Amino acid sequence: MKVGFVGLGAMGQGMAAQLLKAGHTVTVWNRSPAPVETLVAEGATAAKSARALAAKCDVLISMLPDDHSVHEVLVASKALEALPKDSVHINMATVSPGLARALGALHDGLGSHYVSAPVLGRPDVAAAGKLNIIVSGAPAVQERVTPVLEALGQRLWPVGDAPERACVVKIAANFMLATAIESMGEASALTRAYGIDADTFLEIVTSTLFAAPAYQGYGKMIREARYTPAGMKMAWGFKDVSLALAASQERQVPLPFAGVLRDSLLDAMAHGDADKDWAALAETAARRGNLDAR
Amino acid sequence: MKVGFVGLGAMGQGMAAQLLKAGHTVTVWNRSPAPVETLVAEGATAAKSARALAAKCDVLISMLPDDHSVHEVLVASKALEALPKDSVHINMATVSPGLARALGALHDGLGSHYVSAPVLGRPDVAAAGKLNIIVSGAPAVQERVTPVLEALGQRLWPVGDAPERACVVKIAANFMLATAIESMGEASALTRAYGIDADTFLEIVTSTLFAAPAYQGYGKMIREARYTPAGMKMAWGFKDVSLALAASQERQVPLPFAGVLRDSLLDAMAHGDADKDWAALAETAARRGNLDAR
Amino acid sequence: MKVGFVGLGAMGQGMAAQLLKAGHTVTVWNRSPAPVETLVAEGATAAKSARALAAKCDVLISMLPDDHSVHEVLVASKALEALPKDSVHINMATVSPGLARALGALHDGLGSHYVSAPVLGRPDVAAAGKLNIIVSGAPAVQERVTPVLEALGQRLWPVGDAPERACVVKIAANFMLATAIESMGEASALTRAYGIDADTFLEIVTSTLFAAPAYQGYGKMIREARYTPAGMKMAWGFKDVSLALAASQERQVPLPFAGVLRDSLLDAMAHGDADKDWAALAETAARRGNLDAR
Amino acid sequence: MKVGFVGLGAMGQGMAAQLLKAGHTVTVWNRSPAPVETLVAEGATAAKSARALAAKCDVLISMLPDDHSVHEVLVASKALEALPKDSVHINMATVSPGLARALGALHDGLGSHYVSAPVLGRPDVAAAGKLNIIVSGAPAVQERVTPVLEALGQRLWPVGDAPERACVVKIAANFMLATAIESMGEASALTRAYGIDADTFLEIVTSTLFAAPAYQGYGKMIREARYTPAGMKMAWGFKDVSLALAASQERQVPLPFAGVLRDSLLDAMAHGDADKDWAALAETAARRGNLDAR
């Protein structure tokens, strides 16, 4: 299968490399050229444009950061229109349910296919091919691209036909990550006000009840009060919580925790933390209680 | 060491049995007699009253359900006044920081010692001696009771001198449990509104990012929509969140998530769910979005 | 001055009539024809299109329901491009700060002027020319259109140059209306749970501390539990709170009450109340406490 | 009728003076002596103790600041036991529903009567005899004390028999005051972020939609950023919101706005504002958005 890959950021670069290791023929394109060179050195072919790349794919994988860039790179550029009939576009980034639906309809009209396949896992996991991949799309199409996805993930999690379904699962999972951070932040602020430092408190809970990757990863940052370099910048976290709020609005499902998160994230950004990791929500929780001045 | 044990509920009974297995001499007392008989059959001695029991202890362990029962069974009854000089009272239940401070002061006046040692773990973990035990109290006294606590727990987590410290850690950990449930409830309501059932969604997140005991235990209840028999009744959960709110008030630390939890728990109880497991907060989240009527 | 008026809904119709009474020459256009006929009978001239209308105006007033309709009726139609040089467009509806900025820039490029002038007041107030009008725009331009605005309002409230300023004041005022409703709803639910009906409670507070139009108007609906016909539909109220949330995001100002309102409004709409007056938030507050079942 | 008055703070002093002006025979007692001297100069008789005062009353009015002081001054002192048979105790302060019920039962046992009559109005209104008085208690007893209450208030608002009812109305009204302040604070923070100062914004809304005493009084403080001397200290405001939360818990009625208020008040107090007027919640709203640093 000829695989095209567009969007070679921290995640995408490792994923494309992993496809090469698995023996796939991979063509790549990226808005900035550096990662293209790296991948060419590893065996990939460089395309001159997203549109040129699309024209030669059986499978086009995109890993672009947000709705806007998907629109710009693949839709407005008419790249998708260049795809061969019956080819498949797999969008592995986190986008809105609305965009997923729109892309599904667009491909229907073009005679190509759309699969949503957002992933759980950070860049190191991506580079190791150990992602968890949530997949929605027509079952027969999902089946066709399974060999490609299996090169990237330790497990595929199919969640049905409708293209927005996998998006919503990803959005809901990221919302849960944000709640885990806020929860650690608030709980650490409370215990700190009683003289117990965050390092002690979070070691206890993340070694026991909350011995899970999400808590241990972000918990480590909070324990060390080290929020740069950011794995997930506050501003991106805000974008993800906004996606949850938009989905909750679309289907009229109140999400009280998301409202709290929205305000904590705005508070953090208003205090200059937009580029810190969103684990720095713990600092916002401490500031509410004026803990640094005690 | 002669150990007295008061409060033989689901947790206490397994803990007292574990002390017997570890070779300690254990005298027990309980407000209702059935568990006393069970433990006597396993080698314990029955005391006629809490006060009679206290009079013969090197170490008195109490595992009573709330502040009120501690006051009634141990303080108003003058049981603590019967303790030998230099003996130690270990309170292993979840009580308020205020009560911990008051008990610490009371023991100081009586010439006995007070150690806070609340636990993380459910009854089956208690019966296996595998609890995680958070401990605060004078270091020398902590050291003296370590052999007793080691019979009950897989690990001790010392958090300092002040008696309320261990309480606050436990209260904060339970607050985090409540946030984990609410988070799963809200996220499941959102994904369900897009056609993905809770079983599918929660299998994904609790197998990956949230592969931790707290999420897997409560997640299982939500996936199966089975909230009885309750491990932690909604009404007890409300009591625990109220302890977090009281602590946050005492030290003036805002806890926005706790305010949301308070309302969700009240909503649940107003709808007849006081005796369900607090994992049924997921039903409250679904009700807010009227999902059953869709 | 030749005045054009676009957007003859419940508000706009009374405002245009008021301009005629004040002796202005008024040309009107509307997407649905009925209100045009009424106004022609009162002395207005009908234009064939928004663009035709714009071509003949010294002052163009628009009272269109939301950002989308402004874009469609005035921008996409190229109506604004037809405005004579140095003419003034007064937007008296509630739109987003972003749209106000965009329209300001658009008019700068076209050689025409833009004034934001959203209003406080319901249709009967509009028809009586007693609106309160919040105005932002270049001072000299504000001055030029003062005679027109004075025909519509009992008082003008200038808030500076930037076109989005008046929008934000209006959005913030509507946010305050929503909080007043939610506050009455929650307080009435609480007192009702103690046996005091909403009619008794709200009579007391709206006759004393809260003897203000906002409280008395919405309080009457809650006291009578009569939410149709809607003055402000729940769905429009949601749109207005969403504008507050968007503004709060744009400038990174947390608004915790807006988050609560968002969820209460979603809850209401999920329960079928989208077309009721947003005073029906009181029913949502009662439902949270299951009061109807007590 | 012989009237005894206990609790001569800022409110009580003016109320007792008003009773004297109305021609009642008034005996007074207070924990600190200064206001007693003032009232004796105006014609009151001083009692040596609350108990001595109670022994000579047809009607005992208390205006003590909280549950604790009522308990100490009237219950623990056995003052209430000294009341003549069939006399009436009117509690005009804001206390918890639980205390109102307990006092009702206590008086039933003693052969005296209990009326709850909390008031709406600040000290100047009290001194002018223009309070609004919410009354609950047995109808025949309410009738007997009407002449006394009419000397103090411009209007009586009866809300039924149960002693806690009037308390809950007062608590709910104070909760609404707090929401009005928070609403002005959040809305002012938002508009300020767009360059409109609080003075301008609040003049508009408190002259129009929100032209009510509550908004104008607190609005003035926020417009002038002058929070001392406090009419209602932040710490007392917290006590009142806590009463609302306790009532909401007792009857299982979620109050999401009260949760937000609780956190804003804690944030304010953690930042040193406990003695400022609670209108200073506006500063907390601004701090969340870091407005002073912009």
Automatic annotation (TrEMBL), chains A, B, C, D:
Transmembrane regions listed in the UniProt entry: none
All residue ranges annotated as the 3-hydroxyisobutyrate dehydrogenase-like NAD-binding domain in the record: 168-283
Keyword Cell inner membrane in record: no
Protein name: NAD(P)-dependent oxidoreductase
Keywords tagged on the record: NAD, Oxidoreductase
Natural source organism: Salinicola endophyticus
Positions of the 6-phosphogluconate dehydrogenase NADP-binding domain: 2-157
